[in-house]
Amino acid sequence: MFDELARAGGEHLDAAYVGAYDRKAGFDADAADEVRLLCGLGLSEHSTLVDLGAGTGTFALAAAAICRRVVAVDISPDMVIATKEKVAALGVSNVECVQAGFLSYEHQGAPADFVYSRNALHHLPDFWKAVALQGIALMLRPGGILRVRDIVFAFDPPEAERFIRDWLSSGSGQPDEGWTRAEFEEHLRNEHSTFNWCSSRCSNGPGSTSSRLTTVLDASTRATSA
Ligand SMILES: C[S@@+](CC[C@H](N)C(=O)[O-])C[C@H]1O[C@@H](n2cnc3c(N)ncnc32)[C@H](O)[C@@H]1O
Asked: Which protein residue has the closest C-alpha to ligand 1 atom 13?
């Protein structure tokens, strides 16, 4: 089987990195916009939402202000601890924190109305992405919504050199203020961003016959500018 912990990105397993994560990711922390978008798709006080690869729980906590139940799932023990600390500090009672991966998470209770994932699915190679999507389809209620945002390659292979060069040059100079060139290089070496055209196959993937899977790969997080 695929070892999700070993492939989670070493930095996500490093307590110091996790402690500084919110500042680093802050420039594109748009959880409130994401929650508004999901409200437009039916997110309500009756909803159960599962956030896969939840990181430090920024989106999960924003969604918890609306939802009945939120499950924040992450493979990294330190990310889960960080989310638990925020949940406790805020006195929030409807967020559960689960240390598990896309592949190992076993949903308990009523089927999810929403599954959300941002900037995490690229930790799985494409074959395992498909396995994960099948599992997600099975945890969603009929008509449930999956929203995925991730870093994808939105260019054709012959354009790769130019787009990758531009992407690498756009890295932040300050590791605590954004993702650096070295981190983008690491992403290219060891992580598994897919082409955006592969993702269009997810809209009605295996096991999803009774669930509506909406896959959104947001332009603002793509590896390249179109
Ligand atoms: C770049 S962070 C994104 C966190 C958060 N979703 C955000 O948008 O800020 C990627 C997260 O995915 C988690 N992750 C990596 N591989 C995973 C897997 N197989 N299953 C679940 N989470 C995973 C990492 O531990 C990390 O917290």
From this structure: 53
Question: In this structure, what token pair is assigned to residue 172?
Answer: 């932040």
Query: Cα(6) to centroid of ligand 1, in Å?
Result: 13
CATH architecture of 10-221: 3-Layer(aba) Sandwich (3.40)
14 CA to middle of ligand 1, Å?
13
Element (DSSP H or E) covering residue 160: helix 160-169
* Least reliable range by pLDDT among 27-31, 184-188, 215-219: 215-219
Instruction: Output the CA–CA distances (angstroms, integers) from residue 5 to 44, 139, 188, in the order listed.
Output: 33, 22, 19
Q: Which of 75, 122, 136, 186 to mutate to test the pocket of ligand 1 (most atoms within 8 A of CB)?
A: 75
Q: What is the pLDDT of residues 166-181, one digit of tens each?
A: 889 998 898 888 889 9
Domain boundaries, the chain: 10-221
Residue 207 pLDDT exceeds 50: no
User: What is the reported pLDDT for 29?
Assistant: 62
Nearest to 118 by CA among 169, 66, 49: 49
**How many whole angstroms from 120 Cα to the centroid of ligand 1?**
4
- Entry pTM: 0.90
